[in-house]
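Sequence in, structure out. Go.
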Amino acid sequence: MQDSRIARHGLVLLGCGKMGSAMLAGWLAKGLLPTAVWVVDPQPSDWLRTTGVHLNEDLPEAPAIVLVAVKPQMMTDALPTLAAMGNGDTVFVSVAAGITIARFEEILGDRTPIIRAMPNTPAAISQGITAIVGNAHASAGALDEAETLLKAVGEVVRLSTEAQIDAVTGVSGSGPAYVFHMIETMAAAGVEQGLSADLSLQLAKATVAGAGALARDAEEDPSQLRINVTSPNGTTQAALEVLMDEANGFPALLSRAVKAATDRSRELANG
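Output:
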């Protein structure tokens, strides 16, 4: 990952919390030199202090990329400090939820190359998926650079329009919480059927993790995988008749849940 443009001009990471730290760890593991990275973070972790990056030092005038990973509520104070880098060759990549490209253009200038990204929390263990979309000034090369950086924490997909970010938020951005809640409820249901709380939670965690890995790696699609484990008139079919009920099962419930998250994402973006 020793990109020559980044090596020559540097990379700035604005904010290094859980997401920023996961990305930085991934970049360093893939060969990016610490001396090519400048990190701005008012409360650096002990780990960050040991990485060898430039920490809270004077920034290069025109770095190759600025990756914005501060919390959305901190954006108003943090981003204007980098306004001098706008309207040039520096590419800004944002992983801040709810902050639109238009808002970045207001602060940095409307000729600034800007890429908006929506990662999810499994990025913390390099198992995330991130959707990206750029403005009119983000070149194909800029998108390639952003994709290379974000692949350090998982898969990357490209969107055709920024409007799709809200639906991505509803599916994958907020999606891990849906799965975590499913684990909670599966474990609670096991307790209702006579298992101990610890055993039931262990079974639920391993089942969801294993099924997710199988869905990711198998050649068959999820529908076929479901069919493969469903014997006629068996236990799985009995459960699926409840879960696949059109009125009260997963189809209706998850449709409402994803829509609620998507709608809220639109509301937050529109301020």
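Check: Residues 214 and 220 are 9 Å apart (CA to CA). The chain has a mean pLDDT of 93.
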